[in-house]
Amino acid sequence: MKTKRTGQPILTSLAILLGAITIITAPLPSLARAPDGTAPESFAELAARLSPTVVNISSTQKIEEAKDYPEMPQFPPGSPFQDFFDEFMNRRGHGVPFAPPSMMGSGFVIDAQNGYIVTNNHVIQDADEVRVILHNDQSVVAEVIGKDEETDIAVLKIDPKGLNLVPATFGNSDEIRVGDWVLAIGNPYGLGGSVTAGIVSALARDINSGKYDDYIQSDASINRGNSGGPMFNMKGEVIGINTAIFSPTGGSIGIGFSIPSARAKPVINQLIKFGKTRRGWLGVKIQTVTEDIAESFGLAKVSGALVVIVNKDGPADKAGIKDGDILLTFNGQEIKEMRLLPRFVAETEIDSEATVEYWRDGKVLTTKVKVGHLEQAEEEGLIDETPGKEETGGTSIDMVGMSVTPITDALRTTYNIPGNVRGLVVVGVQDLSEAMEKGIAVGDVVVEINQQPVSDPQHLIDVIITAKEAQRSSVLLLVNRGGEVRFVPLKLPAPKQ
Predict the structure, then answer these.
(1) Range of the domain at 355
(2) What is the pTM of this model?
(3) Using CB atoms within 10 A as the burial measure, which of 27, 385, 451, 494 is most buried?
């Protein structure tokens, strides 16, 4: 798991599974056989069969020789200090390289014939040399075929001749349930297989490591050094890649996270075939649909992804999707949460046609979208991507706690408002107001209210009054800040009793 994914926790941290080894000595509790036979009385046979597929991964970085030293002070001829420093430098040596940093983790064989091995990207990231230690202690140099930082997956290749590699078989992680037994196997530091068992604690976990988060959480002890190792179901199939733990100390406390096989397999196949990922691209910037936003749009339930920006001439734009639409389904998959849409799109084949249902003007509409190529769009620059209180006049809107005024050339210069932005500039925010609570700041531009373009303060007031008279609990603003736009729901004050 990449360092940047760990965030800045207060009491606990998401720990990369690298470093010291923890040896588990406590015996597993006695296991009663389940009626369907899926929970064995012992994991010994399963562990013996699966352990040979698991390998140790070690990577090192080369460092240039240290040739430049600080300039030594000049001493008078015959000074005893001169002899001291000469002796020190001779002992220290010149041009002695520093010990290269190394990282260790685990991996597993997926193709014995071609020598393909899967591990985590953070295990081999920035490595100059990668070595694989097999279950029989054979050590071989590996080639990095491809890696993906977004999902933290890497594919290695070794020469399989004479190695008798044992490949793992992928299972369907979408079929596992909370409470199912799982077996986690790693090979930390090449000391041999480390086997632990537990149950699936939760599914579809978002640990804020990236936009494609969809982790399996389990209580099988996953210790440092096991990054990249497989998680097996009771059929002996890989249903996850062990990637991270949640811990206040860096050791296992029974909260581990694994990349589901259903998410990993498309990435692995692309890395083998192309050496990099080829993700689908829709061409929209989205935000979460909150209760206030759902109420403002007249949605019956809180779901979907609210479109904030549609990239010009992107797939969504060509399909007729507009800013302010709420995307409800993608290729028949319900977008229950905003964060699901990037994954749905990314996993869709490039240039394929996807069906999208969306909400506009109180109706569900349908369109067909030709899915674009994300990496290509990034390379071609096709992806678009200080609050305070001030009072400089303007029309005060006390119901929401802010003052606005039409944009002038002077205000454009003062607040760095792009020339193509139209609307009302915020020139004042009241303390403890709804506007301040929702992050509205001086210099923001209110572009729309309830999906109506606005350029006159009175129009803004009229829409708010109309919404209040209709007993709406909020209004929805489209706000532009420095060229970036977002929807902001503002609650209206409740009627006086």
Answers:
(1) 280-379
(2) 0.65
(3) 451
In the chain, the amino acid numbered 26 is A
Distance CA 186, CA 399 (A): 59
Cβ atoms of residues 293 and 476 within 8 Å: yes
Residues 121 and 166 in one domain: yes
Cβ atoms of 262 and 171 within 8 Å: the answer is: no
Q: Do residues 201 and 128 share a domain?
A: yes
Please state, in angstroms and rounded to a whole number, the distance separating the CA atoms of residues 358 and 364: 6
On whether both 105 and 230 belong to a single domain, the answer is yes
51 located within any domain = yes
Residue 362's Cβ-side half-sphere holds a number of Cα atoms within 13 Å equal to 2
Per-residue pLDDT of the chain (497 residues; tens, 9 = 90+): 333 333 333 333 344 444 333 333 334 344 444 444 456 778 888 988 999 999 998 888 665 544 444 555 555 555 555 565 566 555 555 444 545 556 688 999 999 999 999 999 988 888 888 999 898 888 899 999 999 988 899 999 999 998 989 999 999 999 999 999 999 988 766 566 788 889 999 998 887 677 788 889 988 877 777 888 899 999 999 999 998 777 565 556 678 889 999 999 999 999 999 999 899 999 988 888 888 888 888 888 899 998 887 888 899 999 999 888 999 999 999 999 888 999 999 999 999 999 999 999 889 999 999 999 998 888 887 775 433 333 445 788 888 888 898 888 778 877 888 888 899 999 888 877 888 888 898 889 999 998 899 988 888 988 998 888 888 888 999 999 888 888 999 988 876 54
